[in-house]
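Summary for the steering committee. The consortium agreed at its last meeting that each partner would contribute one worked example illustrating the joint modelling workflow. Our contribution is presented below. We chose a case with several input lines so that the handling of multiple components could be demonstrated. No manual editing was applied between input and output; the record is shown as generated.
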Amino acid sequence: MFEQLILGVDPGVASTGLAAVRGGGQRAEVVWSDTVRTPAGLAEALRLRALHEAIAAALATHRPDAVAIERLMWGRNTGSAMGVARASGVLLLAAAEAGLPVSEYAPLEVKMAVAGSGTATKADLRRFLGMLGISGVPDQPDAADAVAVAVCHLTGAALRAATGAAR
Amino acid sequence: MFEQLILGVDPGVASTGLAAVRGGGQRAEVVWSDTVRTPAGLAEALRLRALHEAIAAALATHRPDAVAIERLMWGRNTGSAMGVARASGVLLLAAAEAGLPVSEYAPLEVKMAVAGSGTATKADLRRFLGMLGISGVPDQPDAADAVAVAVCHLTGAALRAATGAAR
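What follows is the complete predicted structure of the assembly.
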């Protein structure tokens, strides 16, 4: 079975969830996860630099096959939307610098892939990750979201592989 | 008179205007300007990488004292707002990596500083830059906007210096 290691990312300036998830076919496991926090008192440019360093280090250490990022939903939380968009820009940059492909998934896609429902709550997602038999899901919410994004990517990759095989 | 070299930036994924403006007191001159364009067909992560490389090169070559960035106005042009926000994230990162302070100015602040009116058009701004005796203003609109942002920063710096002197 074709296996992939995916770095899932739930972006934010204050807190970014990261999770390296290995999977393919019917199973997946969380190899590593972390939450990158940057101090509120620091200038935004310096927070983005800290975030860039953390993601670059994670990519160098875990050497994933691809990066999957949760896409900002426009129009919601406009107060933090600018920060999330800027953080995602820095994360896309780090992936490009590492020569890795990046896929972005809307929250709705992640919920559908993991829980089969677009109205799933964070608690639902967590429960479904457990039901999917994924070991090592972190308690920290942003890191758990990063696992869900990575699983969403793996699900799509499995579907694409299955479709290719059926041709 | 205390002079500063400011790199003004008008950010965007497709096109980013850059201008190195030297000034202080009653005069300013455009030392260098450029427009960084990235191919529409390229993945966004690769476009952000190209932008990051271009700004890093500009900072290394011109060694400004500070960076001044035009701030995205939220709620307008939401189609391109995400791209502008991501580009600005990468630009803030590059400034932080170069150890430079970054200031952001809303379009209204730039218009007030350069033209004395918040309803000034791009053409008005250009005319006022000429009336301020600033030499070397580029024709390309994004690069001209970058000059205006740098001039806005220099105006504020001059005011702060004057206020400090008056104390």
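Chain B has one domain: 4-166. The beta strands of chain B are 4-10, 15-24, 27-37, 66-70, 102-105.
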